[in-house]
Amino acid sequence: MEPAAAADLSSRTLRFLTRQLAARRQEIGTRWRRLSAARQALLALTHLRCGDTYAQLAVGFGIGIATVYRYIREAVEALSAPAPSLDEAMRTIRTKAFVILDGTLLPIDRIAADTPYYSGKYKRHGMNVQVLTDPFGRLLWVSPALPGSTHDLTAARQHGIIDAFADAGLKCWADKAYQGAGGHVRVPFRGRRFKRWKRRHNTTHAKIRCLGERAMATLKGWRLLRKLRCSTNRITDVVKAVLVLHHAST
């Protein structure tokens, strides 16, 4: 049985990627492939959704490992190309009352010597990704991936998120990692001993911000992102591909 048989995939998502791949084949003038565009889409989605290895997919689809690699890379590139930039995402964000900003670590398989990728916060190697969600926890935008040692506030500034919200005059809720981001980014009070009104503020803030965890769950629902084994140079494209697929399925 093919690995894809166990994949939790919607027919809408499969049709969307099939159209993307068919258009790409027509653009480059492909005449024949071992797999049809629909089967290639199924292959790529199984890899992204279930995290199946190239070897497992090669057996399941009856093709070579090198062919699996090429097909998946082509699909990821086709998906990542139309992913929205922050400026493009801001058009949607401006229609929201506020947004929630949070950072997460996408684990990677790296050795202890790879210091730039080691996150002291999570105690493991990975890539730092910044996530923006609407007030209901729906995923709006995901940043390019940076080495795991990058602090969340540094990453947000580097991607231009802080300046974008300041320029647009929009409010953003975030956790304590973003202390010092400025008045447009609302963070909880730090410390343990507070006056009652500060405790109430932190409680309300936490209830709003926890909705952003839904977006994190959405990302981690794509099992490949739970343990990435590809080159760190390709992770940004993988994240963008997942974002585009998520938007296509909703």
Can you describe this structure?
This protein is an alpha/beta fold and 250 residues long. The chain has two domains: 3-80, Orthogonal Bundle (Cyclin A, domain 1), CATH 1.10.472; 86-249. It contains ten helices and seven strands. The protein has helices at 11-28, 37-50, 54-61, 65-80, 86-93, 152-158, 161-168, 196-209, 213-220, 235-249; strands at residues 99-107, 118-119, 124-133, 139-142, 146-147, 172-173, 185-186. Strands 1, 2, 3, 4, 5, 6 and 7 form a seven-stranded mixed beta sheet that branches. Helix 1 (11-28) crosses helix 4. The chain is elongated. Mean pLDDT is 88; it is low at 1-7.
Compact summary:
With 250 residues, the chain is α/β, with parallel strands linked by helices. It has 10 helices and 7 strands.
Give the SSE layout.
Elements: H1 11-28, H2 37-50, H3 54-61, H4 65-80, H5 86-93, E1 99-107, E2 118-119, E3 124-133, E4 139-142, E5 146-147, H6 152-158, H7 161-168, E6 172-173, E7 185-186, H8 196-209, H9 213-220, H10 235-249
Parallel strand pairs: 1-6, 6-7
Antiparallel strand pairs: 1-3, 2-3, 3-4, 3-5
Helix pairs in contact: 1-2, 1-4, 1-10, 2-4, 3-4, 4-10
